[in-house]
Predict the structure.
Amino acid sequence: MKISNKRDLKSVLESEGFSFKKSLGQNFLIDDTVCPRMAEAVSGENVGVLEIGPGAGVLTAQLSRACKKVVSVELDTRLKPVLEQTLSGCDNVKIIWNDILKVDLKTVLAEEFGDCDTINICANLPYYITSPVIMMLLESNLPINKIAVMVQKEAADRLCAEVGSRDAGAVTVAVNYYATAKTLFGVPRSSFLPPPNVDSAVIELTLRDKPPIEVKDEKHFFRLVKACFAQRRKILLNTVCNTMGISKDDFRSVLNKAGISETVRGETLTMEQLAAISNALCK
Ligand code: SAM
């Protein structure tokens, strides 16, 4: 069933008495050109795809055509009758009615994609949980290859920024630790029903086999990263020492040994410099 244009989608939703919930980030795609491009980014022979938030199933149907199997996790059970209509005939799709942040993904992936060679993730993410979902997917050590997700344009700029550049934040460092990130294409707000207040972009995160830097203690590294970006425009020596409970003299000597200026600001540090500081403090 075709629902990728506004009239058809509206008619299906109205036939089931469905009304959008802003609190669940429900902005559904009504642009024919977007879903095929998203599906193409994750598709392939023998690929299984986990989708987050199928909504009315417009991307799900496209993924169903392009991949071996699709498992979609949706929180809003009011969408059951809608998806029954829109996904009829998509026999390789399974819907799990749950909160993506509460699902045991390791078990789900093992049980559902045992016969697939590769597992990818694809979603038009509900924007209120963009960062927690992306960090959960990256940190959980899941057997996934690639994540292609739609996020707000500003979030895309931050997630795909170069570490050390003005657009970077603590989340940029975290993403870079686990994956390589790039923006695939922009999507205007007019591509959604109802249109959100911001434009969007589809980003692709390809999981690394191992992190690009060697870190002695990951927990310490990420605590330092958070402290560095908490007051990003201030001099590191004045901000990090308090947060991390380090004396200024000790921190000065760490910076000097790593060849980093004492007046450096957190936002300008590279992955290697952050790792050098964390490793020196961890001794
Ligand atoms: N994929 C559809 C599309 O592109 O038209 C819908 C995308 S809409 C931006 C986000 C979807 O995520 C909604 O269907 C919403 O109900 C669902 N959702 C919101 N919070 C969720 C959560 N915690 N777990 C799973 N799904 C969630």
About this structure: The radius of gyration is 21 Å. Strands lie at 28-29, 47-52, 69-74, 93-97, 118-124, 146-152, 179-187, 192-193, 200-207. Residues 218-230 form the longest helix (13 residues).
